[in-house]
Design a protein that fits this description.
The chain has two domains: 174 residues, Aspartate Aminotransferase, domain 1; 255 residues, 3-Layer(aba) Sandwich (Aspartate Aminotransferase, domain 2), CATH 3.40.640.10. Helices cover 40% and strands 15% of the residues. The chain contains 16 helices and 16 strands. The strands form four sheets. It has a seven-stranded mixed β-sheet, with helices on both faces. It is globular, with a radius of gyration of 22 Å. The protein starts with a helix and ends with a helix.
Length: 441
């Protein structure tokens, strides 16, 4: 890399004295100086004060082209005018109520119309909550206790999902897989005993594991494209086989489309042609505000229905279906037409090809996974077809790429994830490709 990692901290500090002061101030009242783990990087993150289109500016006036978009949330970039106008109108009318509003109906209509597997929907305030309720519904509907998930699959902070979403090189080396690893201290005793771990993109092994626990499994939850675990697309036959084995044994199939809804007008499930029983949504459905959703078959969602007395599965959440958030979500989703998704995915596919060519031309051992507007760089010759392949890649070199790009005014995730927005154009793509080429020399 042009910018060695041992000089990043000094160069970053020289560029961002205002951010350093804010971080020092934050550290006095916020543990670790931040309020979520993912935004911290040593020695401290840059503090943003403004965003417009595909760019942000920090407190010191440094400009950045945003190839992260709040971890895939801002599909139209920052300060998208229809969203801003919707928020202004709703703020003047009331941001939230202890009652429903028409915006939640309209947003639910949009999602149900696009995602054909979703007959009925409910909103939540975060992806974690949406997944929690989807798993609870699966257990209520089936009367079974176990769930199954895949290595590298991140489904939020609910205890049952904090198992093996992030493996270390030692974990991968110790076993062919899959392994059950607690990714957080403080989890309930025995939580891993009710979570069956499965190997992503390995259908025969997955089917065998599901059959072995079929009588106890309430559901299988999967990201059609693994997100934080490396942006690894599922193989079509894998998802189709997963659908077949779960249906055969009365196990609910849950698609976590919190990140992948952006990949098709009907989400990733529309792209793959596989319909799950339940789906969780987040990120782009909110227009940039805290909002998520879950939905699916009407009979599976029925335990939430309060019309005939207290529901078997009550749902709470002060900000569920918040008027301001759903108004913003409606504006965002109405602007996300089939054509805009096609254009955005074409831009992403072209970027993937151009990055692959940069790596080939420079003799760099690297690859790009994903498709459409979600990509990830891996410094590895081994094809990354699951989270284990991502773990075996050179993580230190990936960190140096993140640092080098940040100093050049381009933001990606430290784990190598790249996310496009409709606010981008050829100039931003050209600049990004050039910056990557400079960074890896």
């Amino acid at each position: 890399m042009t910018q060695p990692d041992d000089s990043f901290e000094s160069v970053h500090a020289a560029r961002t004295p205002g951010s350093r002061k804010l971080f020092e101030r934050a550290s006095k009242v916020l543990i670790g100086g931040t309020t979520r783990t993912s935004v911290f990087h040593p020695p401290y993150p840059a503090y943003m004060v403004r965003g417009e289109g595909c760019r942000t500016w920090d407190v010191d006036g440094n400009a950045y082209v945003d190839f992260l978009n709040n971890y895939t949330t801002l599909i139209h970039g920052h300060c998208f005018e229809p969203v801003v106008e919707a928020l202004k109108r709703q703020a003047e009318a009331g941001s939230c109520f202890g009652a429903p509003s028409e915006h939640e109906i309209r947003l639910a209509e949009i999602i149900c119309a696009r995602v054909t597997s979703v007959r009925k929907l409910r909103f939540a305030s975060s992806g974690t909550e949406a997944v929690m309720y989807a798993l609870r519904l699966a257990r209520a509907f089936t009367g079974r206790n176990l769930i199954a998930k895949f290595e590298g699959g991140f489904h939020g902070a609910y205890d049952d999902c904090q198992i093996s979403y992030c493996l270390s090189a030692d974990h991968v080396a110790a076993a062919h897989g899959p392994v059950s690893v607690r990714n957080s201290r403080g989890l309930e005793t025995g939580v891993e005993d009710r979570v069956i771990m499965l190997p992503f993109n390995r259908l025969d092994e997955t089917v065998a594991a599901i059959k072995a626990h079929a009588g106890q499994l309430a559901c299988v939850i999967v990201e059609p494209v693994i997100g934080s675990g490396g942006v690894i697309p599922a193989e079509r036959d894998f998802l189709q086989g997963l659908r077949e084995v779960t249906a055969r044994h009365g196990i609910l199939l849950i698609f976590d489309e919190i990140m992948t809804l952006r990949l098709g007008f009907g989400g990733a499930q529309g792209h793959y042609g596989v319909e799950p029983d339940l789906t969780t949504f987040g990120k782009i459905v909110s227009g940039g505000l805290p909002l998520a959703a879950f939905g699916g078959r009407e009979d599976v969602m029925a335990p939430l229905d309060p019309r005939n007395g207290p529901p078997p599965v009550p749902q709470s959440g002060t900000f569920n279906g918040c008027a301001a958030a759903t108004a913003a979500g409606v504006a965002c989703m109405e602007a996300l037409t089939r054509e805009r998704i096609r254009e955005l995915n074409a831009m992403g596919d072209a970027l993937k090809s151009r990055l692959d060519e940069v790596f080939r031309r420079t003799g760099t051992t690297a690859q790009v996974t994903g498709f459409g507007s979600l990509l990830n760089v891996h410094f590895s010759a081994e094809p990354a077809t699951d989270h284990r392949g991502a773990v075996r890649a050179d993580r230190e070199r990936l960190e140096r790429l993140f640092q080098a790009l940040l100093l050049r005014g381009y933001v990606i995730a430290a784990r190598g994830m790249i996310c496009l927005s409709t606010a981008m154009g050829e100039d931003e793509i050209d600049g990004f490709v050039d910056a990557v080429a400079e960074a890896i020399h």
